[in-house]
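tool_call: predict_structure(chain=1)
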Amino acid sequence: MRSHTIEKFRDSLLRWYGRNRRPFPWRLNPTPYRVWISEIMLQQTQSKSAMPYYKRFLERFPDITSLARAPQEEILALWSGLGYYSRARNLREAALRIVESHNGVFPSDHATVLSLPGIGRYTAGAVCSIAFHQPQPVVDGNVRRVIARLEGILSRIPEKYFWDRMAGWIPENNASAFNQAMMELGAVLCLPSQPLCPRCPVRRYCVAKSKNLQNRIPAPKQRKTAEKVVLVVLVVKWKGKILLVRRRGGFIPGEWGLPTRIVSPGHSPQETAESLNQSLFGGRLQIENNSVLRHSITRHRIAAYIFAGRATEPALEKLKKGEGIHWAGQAQLEAMLTSSLFRKAVQRCRA
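tool_result:
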């Protein structure tokens, strides 16, 4: 678009946004902290689904200091259900750094924001433009789709192109509204399929609309194949408590979880469960196959074979003690088990 056309395009878009923007709480009070939390939640979650989580999170952690001081288990428990738990861990790490290096005040410098854990170019641009009114561009899936249709882009092109376009279009004095308007347009009108073109405020500038290419743009992505995983999960009880072990990495979220082991090719769930029993209890735990639980975590499609056991003194003698072992009662289970897979497994063994 030429410069005079860009001005008309911006004016039309901003007038529409001013009349039609959705009243999200982070928009009504766009402090850096509130914008940051909302953008991290919205990375892999639709706004309607994220709303109750956002409200609960802000009630418990109203500012950076309260978030930095909170135990990671509590943060993960409030995050439970949103998925991609590394986002929650990075929130706490970033809050700690802000408290330690910036006296608890969210930094306004774009490069500094970008250096915080869990913050990439999009989130840094969103915080700096929406909360600090800086002319920093943002490009998410909605913005990318809007630009591709406006310019009639039929093939896949480098990501840099979209960032350059947004940097050239964003107004110096109204970056906050413009960035949000572009995202809003893609979220409510310029939909991935069957876009609502008759209601679009900038349809006169859209190449895809003029050439009837809306449903061919953007070019479809190649879908990643889901990874199938078979694993065993041990639910071990002792005096009304359940054994938890500290987890380090892996695709199942949470710092604490039930003992698990992936079933290797050529081995049965029963053999794998006995191997896990051997490593934990020296094989002295009596276990039985309870049920099979089907579960999905991001791109993993899981078949979890649940084995239940009740600890005895001989078995406990062999159990390795240390910081990685914890017997949790009901209240602790609610706080420490952030994975819905583990919660479902415990529930199965109560039935």
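agent: The longest strand covers residues 227-238. Proceeding to next step.
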